[in-house]
Design goal:
single chain, mainly alpha, Helix Hairpins, two-stranded antiparallel sheet, about 60% helix, globular, DUF1573 domain-containing protein
Length: about 130
């Protein structure tokens, strides 16, 4: 581990995670944190209304090249997050990252290395990684 913010974060998680040390506790907290991220995004639409989600079938013309595909794809979101919703989503995503790193720590995995490998895959495969 180097001195990157990821490495510092991973060490900090290791230092402070005491109560939910069991991998079973960590996995269940990770799953719960994912649900809270989803819920905070949904509440931005249903409670606050700062964003709108208009999900519908993606209309993709026939005989389109893969390079042009991006122009026709939508994230189905309109509007902008207000400061309150943005803060809440960031908080929940931070908790989610905490438990992801806690899983890494339990399994003796380095989050920095995982992200580096993933970046190398993207760099190598580019658009063909199909994410």
């Amino acid at each position: 581990m180097g001195d990157s913010v990821l490495n510092k974060f991973q060490k900090s998680v290791s230092d402070v995670l005491i109560r939910h040390k069991s991998i079973l506790d960590i996995i269940s907290k990770y799953q719960e944190s994912c649900a809270k991220v989803n819920r905070s995004i949904i509440k931005s639409t249903t409670n606050c209304g700062c964003i709108h989600i208009n999900a519908k079938k993606q209309d993709i013309p026939d005989n389109i090249s893969y390079e042009e595909l991006k122009r026709f794809m939508s994230n189905h979101i309109s509007g902008e997050l207000c400061d309150i919703c943005k803060d809440k989503i960031e908080e929940e995503m931070g908790n989610h990252l905490f438990y992801l790193v806690a899983i890494c720590n339990s399994l003796n995995l380095d989050i920095y290395e995982i992200l580096n490998k993933q970046q190398k895959n993207i760099d190598t495969l580019g658009k063909y990684s199909l994410y």
